[in-house]
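This part of the workshop introduces the protein records we will be handling. The question running through the whole workshop is how a given chain folds. To make this concrete, we reproduce a full record directly below:
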Amino acid sequence: SYLHVKFKFYHLNMIINHGVRGSIPNASRKTVGYGGNTLCVEIKTSKYQLIFDCGSGFSKVDLDNDLQTILFISHFHHDHIQGLAFNEYNSATDKKIIITSAHSNKETTYNNLFNYYKAPYFPIKFLEIVNKFEFNEFDNVVHNFTDLKINSIELNHPGLCSGYSIMSNQKKFCYLLDNEFQSNQKDKLIKFCNNSETVIWDGMYLESEMANKKGWGHSSIEQGIEIASQIEVKNFLISHHAPQREDSEIDSLQKNLPSNKIKFASENEVIEF
């Protein structure tokens, strides 16, 4: 079920889409309906706050002092990390945010973010000044969970990219942004996604746009529809909307989707998980 509320929840598993736009933010009256912030998805359980990517939508994440916060980076392209420095970090002084990536060790993850947030790209050495982060190996992080199971999958995207699945209370969530779908991935993706409560799929392009975007690392809306038809899933959310894709176009596409389990992701939507 979909909720559109902004108060705090406790002891309720939920997914929050803080950003659904790809490549660059686009905040205009023509994109406000589905949202203009770049990628950031949050899952809250009674113990954990799991955040997937820190695009500009990360600025809105309410860092919860009562939960352990872990940030999973899918890859290091700017639309997935550009919001890290713009959260207010109003959490307790002793609270650390764990940062990890399935395809990058902790040193590389730190160095990539450190270099992004320093001169000549940023006015300060952000990671040295804001002492809120603890970098850790992906395997170490996931092995410490007793009530969650987190897996990763390699995606087809320039510069390496990881997708993630989370199993909590016998419900599965999959985060699969920035993947250029190829036929040899099909069986692996279906196995990874099958029997999910919610899947977030990269549908940046229409099939008619793909010819000019080969090698850019993104899938089509139509490819997402095909995958959704072959898996058991409650909510199949098409996300990473092209920056120029206006609300009116997405509304038209939504009306022609073949199943009510397939939807276009919307910023600030909250989904029970």
Notes: The mean pLDDT is 93. The two ends are 9 Å apart (CA to CA). The longest helix spans residues 106-116.
